[in-house]
From TrEMBL:
Residues 1-18 form the signal peptide. It comes from the Eukaryota. This is Uncharacterized protein. Residues 93-120 form a coiled coil. Keywords: Coiled coil, Signal.
Amino acid sequence: MTLFNTYYFLLFIILGNAYEFSENKKSDENFSLVGKILNDGILAEKSQHNFETNNVPSIVVSHDIGVKRMVQRKPAPRVRRPQRQVRKATGTANSQQALIQQLRKRIADLEFQIQLEQIIAEQNLQQERRNRHLNEIERRRLREARLRQMQQNREKNRRLRRQQLDATVQEIVERAREDERLLLEQELASQTTAQP
């Protein structure tokens, strides 16, 4: 009964996960949002890197010491860096957090489903072993019953043949006695007829 309850419990969990998975899939038609966010971030970093390498200030170094000193004293012009312009992903931070939570939940559900399938496979394997063992015991019992039945039939046939043989012998003996009695009667009859 516990195994039956366990199966119903696991079936209920699997159906609940499947329903939740289908609901999440309906609500998350734009699942490529994470890919867009990551791709946009990489592109923004790459463009920032290109901008910084292209705008490196050029310093002319002369052989004149005075010029060198002037160049050294002169502060480098401050290049105003533009702020990183990362294209905002569609949706707010809350929706991104919700998406991350959905992904984590989906991963947890998949891990649970894998564990559940492993448990079910192990239970099926144990049940198969039990069934094989029970089948072997049943086959052995049937084989022993057949052997017993064959021995009983053999014994019954032997007794029947013995009875038939005894009956035949008895009949032969009775006939022989009857024939002997008839012969004696004939002899007596012939002797009585021969005496006068």
